[in-house]
Specification:
By secondary structure, the protein is mainly beta. The chain has no helices and nine strands. The chain has a five-stranded mixed β-sheet with strand order 1-3-8-5-6, with no helix packed on it. A four-stranded antiparallel β-sheet has the order 2-9-4-7, with no helix packed on it.
Length: 168
């Protein structure tokens, strides 16, 4: 994990080929509900803002790859993970809102050595949840002594500023 290979992104996509084999590391413990307990390899990348992340690892058909995304070595719980449904299928995981920071992608096997794989890591604009009360017509009525929380990241910037501000 400490010597994770940095990923290089071209138009939002990083592609790597590798082999999880007897020479690669064994994790200090199983992760992802025991979907990743065998040998593994690590890749690193950094985001400077919220991003949508999709990670896919496709094996050569002789083994079932697993992927995990985490912010640091041995960090648990992991942020996202997936195990291929069969040796012919890829392991794919998507995170709609990955926060800014340093990230690790772990490719490994559920048990044993593993084999060759192709890894694709895609970063896109984040997929924020729709905001149901984004318009005045859909305002949520407030009740006394009630705490409300929300997230403005998916809301439109559609109302003029107040207090003399010129920005919207």
């Amino acid at each position: 994990c400490a010597d994770a290979k940095p990923l290089t992104f071209a138009t939002g996509v990083a592609i790597e080929a590798g082999t999880v084999g007897p020479h690669t590391s064994t994790p200090s413990g199983c992760v992802c509900g025991n979907q990743l307990c065998g040998n593994d390899l690590f890749y690193a990348f950094t985001t400077t803002g919220d991003r949508k992340l999709t990670v896919s690892a496709t094996g050569d058909g002789s083994w079932r790859p697993s992927v995990a995304v985490r912010p640091a070595c041995d960090a648990t719980p992991v942020t996202a993970c997936a195990l291929a449904a069969s040796p012919a299928a890829p392991a794919v995981t998507t995170t709609d809102i990955l926060p800014a920071g340093d990230w690790l992608v772990q490719v490994g096997s559920p048990s044993g050595a593993g084999g060759p794989f192709d890894l694709q890591v895609m970063l896109e604009d984040p997929a924020y949840a729709p905001v149901p009360n984004d318009l005045c017509a859909n305002a949520i009525p407030l009740a006394a002594a009630t705490l409300y929380s929300g997230d403005t990241r998916g809301a439109a910037d559609d109302v003029s500023g107040t207090c003399g501000a010129t920005d919207t």
